[in-house]
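Exercise 3.2. Students should predict the tertiary structure of the chain below and write it as structure tokens, then compare their answer with the key that follows.

Predict this chain's 3D structure.
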Amino acid sequence: MENTQQSSLADALVIEHKSLSELDDVHIIINWNEIEKTLSSLYSSVPGAPAYPPLMMFKILILQAWYNLSDEALEKQIARDLMFRRFIDLSLCEPVPDHSSIWRFRQLLNTENLLEPLLEQINTHLEQNSIIVALGSINIIDATVTEAKQSRKRKGKDDNNTQDPEASYNVKTAVDGKRKTTYGYKMHANTDEDGFVKKMSYTPGNVHDSQEFDKLLDTYKTKDKIKTCGEVYADSAYANKKNNEKIGKQNNKVLHRAYRNKPLTKQQKQDNKQRSSIRYVVERTFGLLKLHHGLGKARYLGLARNKARAQLIAMSHNLKTGMNIFKEMQRLKGLRGYCVQ
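Answer key:
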């Protein structure tokens, strides 16, 4: 999508460099006009139209999640980074949105319940460009813990506990048998085989993984019942009679669970080994979200704000992954064209 804004003399004087166009491929794989239509309700439904175009503000939040920046750091980065300005279509002659405007717009997206539709819309655009495989896609479901911004018990004013009141304790037994306790939240996600986040939810840390299972499943309705789209891979925490019936025998790739006096059979162990080799994709995705996007530590107090941040992180991850796949597709297309010649 081309920049539709009027270029200033200052913009015309900028010397082109490949570093300025690093994010340009995103404009090819995403139809920003459709995203803008989704955001257009923000003009009419909320008193006082935003000072900046909603699409520009949304792109700013994508950059924030992409580069793991605070609101204040993001404001500074936009002011001095030509690539950021190019991505959001902000002229050198225009003022930069301040950090409070960024914060308010993120809150607005959350209160208007637009973040989930936006994630679905981005994924649809990636499907339309053959970057996400829709037909025959699998479901890899898991959860990861995010430490709360204020996770330790400390005395604040009036001797009140300063811990985030909406977070809670998560206790997990590690591979080495040691128990690890984290005070925070959980991101539950369904990814495909390429690591794209298809669906996600966000809860306090004490919510059991299996409780979010229904929200994450990729399903479709038939005349008789709701069926699962594709095979479902998950760890043994999701293994129970209810889930097994929901998934169906053919699509059930949940790890077998051993019970007291009922150890796993040789075949079940082999099944688990094969299923784990595919299930690791969701763990790799969580690792990337924590390493590059800061998902491991909550930035705000409260469930709603941190959920909004996690949803934006999922979108930015999908865009980043999609752009890398698109570049590889273009490279291979160029090689094929070269071979033909």
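Discussion points: Residues 135 and 149 are 39 Å apart (CA to CA). The chain has a mean pLDDT of 89.
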